[in-house]
Design a protein that fits this description.
Blueprint lengths: L3 E7 L20 H8 L6 H6 L1 H4 L14 E5 L8 H8 L17 H11 L5 E5 L2 H15 L3 E4 L4 E7 L5 H18 L3 E8 L6 E2 L4 E4 L7 H7 L3 E5 L2 H4 L7 E3 L4 H11 L6 E7 L1 H7 L4 H18 L8 E5 L18 E6 L6 E6 L3 H11 L13
Parallel strand pairs: 1-11, 1-12, 2-14, 3-4, 5-6, 9-10, 9-11
Antiparallel strand pairs: 2-13, 4-5, 6-7, 6-8, 12-13
Helix pairs in contact: 5-7, 10-12, 11-12
Length: 385
């Protein structure tokens, strides 16, 4: 049996604002701590055993004297608080400049260039919005005018929504290719095609979403792992975050439960290498939408699923549970929050240890190299294995 590292990113589950949070307007943010306080306590017995309550004070999740692994929290070295920045840093790329965000919509310069490149006469939206809500509000007008719906979110994304009967799928993808070329110039992280169907009052997004990510500026630790002969299995949106580079197998998922189900199946397929999972519901469905109760329920549901997962770990497996940024639903606005991320490391051969505050998310990638026996050629970070 070969060695494996399983990384589960519980998307946006931050554990308190960072030292430089004032620069981001995030003093006071604490996704996990504030949610627990707001709902009167969280029931997370499996995460508690791993030492989650030893990292910070969490109502309902007490610290344990003998945690079942290593625990700590990690400071983000990159300048940003979005999905791509966090994930790229985990795998060795520290971004000196944050990806641009557009909470008030895209400037006229970008919209005009998009029109010129695609030939569209007009656009709708151009706001930061929920994808389901914006098609509910603008879907009928889109079908009447033929104008694509442009919107963004708390991430660095240029999203294009279109009804299949108004702008055929192939044409929507063409628009996205044009937008990707444009967005490279502005360093916008992802372009996303958001097709939908149905009629006014009953619009529904389809499974034909397609992501057009910015290519990482250099090879990541994922590339090195794959070149070293190991499998890198990406579950959820991992493939899209890294522009498909360094990902041997990619499986997209519908939700957190599907992500964990796919992970359990993948454990019987990928016997050596890295299995990298992103569970996006916390961020997408609850953080950005400021749904505290939904977020709390999702955390408790994940904890239950984790209970059934631990028995699948082989002798030399290492499980890392972490996050990529914060998105405190009790905080102001709807954006991500600049927070430390949790670090829980477990496995049959992992002994309990307080890892303290780590200096960069890249420690996760470097530790993966260490465990797999791959020499680190100079990626930032320090192994905790």
């Amino acid at each position: 049996m070969g060695k494996r590292v399983i990384i589960i990113v519980i998307d946006s589950v931050g554990v308190g604002y960072m030292d430089d949070a004032a620069e981001f307007g995030d003093i006071g943010a604490n996704t996990l701590g504030n949610i627990a306080e707001k709902v009167g306590g969280l029931n997370l017995p499996n995460l508690k055993k791993l030492g989650l309550g030893n990292i910070i004070d969490i109502k309902g999740v007490d610290p344990v004297k003998y945690p079942a692994g290593k625990f700590g929290k990690i400071r983000e070295a990159s300048k940003g608080k979005d999905t791509m920045t966090g994930h790229w840093e985990m795998m060795g790329i520290i971004s000196e400049e944050a990806f641009p965000l557009y909470p008030d919509g895209f400037p006229e310069e970008i919209i005009n260039e998009f029109k010129e490149r695609t030939g569209v006469k007009g656009i709708l939206g151009n706001i930061a919005a929920s994808g389901t809500k914006i098609i509910e509000e603008l879907g009928a007008e889109h079908m009447r005018t033929g104008f694509p719906v442009i919107y963004t979110s708390g991430d660095s994304v240029f999203q294009i929504a279109a009804h299949n009967d108004t702008i055929p799928l192939g044409k929507l993808y063409e628009y996205c290719v044009q937008a990707r070329e444009m967005c490279d110039k502005y360093k916008i992280g992802r372009v996303i095609a958001r097709p939908f169907v149905g009629s006014d009052g009953a619009f529904k997004r389809t499974v034909d979403r397609r992501d057009y990510p910015m290519i990482p500026p250099e090879d990541t630790i994922l590339d090195l792992i794959e070149k070293s002969g190991f499998v890198v299995s990406g579950i959820g949106k991992i493939e899209d975050i890294y522009a498909r580079k360094g990902v041997s197998r990619a499986i997209h998922t519908k939700n957190n439960k599907d992500g964990m189900d796919v992970l359990m199946k993948e454990m019987s397929i990928t016997k050596e290498g890295l299995i990298f999972v992103n569970l996006v519901d916390f961020d997408m469905l609850y953080g950005h939408r400021r749904n505290v109760e939904g977020y709390a329920s999702a955390l408790e549901e994940f904890d239950k699923m984790l209970g059934g997962f631990s028995g699948l770990l082989e002798q030399e497996d290492i499980l890392v549970i972490t996050a990529d940024h914060g998105c405190d639903p009790t905080f102001k606005g709807t954006d991500h929050t600049r927070e430390f991320i949790p670090l829980l490391v477990s496995g049959r051969e992992i002994s309990p240890e307080d890892l303290g505050i780590r200096r960069t998310f890249a420690d996760i990638g470097v530790s993966t190299l260490h465990h797999l026996g791959i020499n680190n050629p100079g990626f930032p970070g320090k192994s905790f294995i």
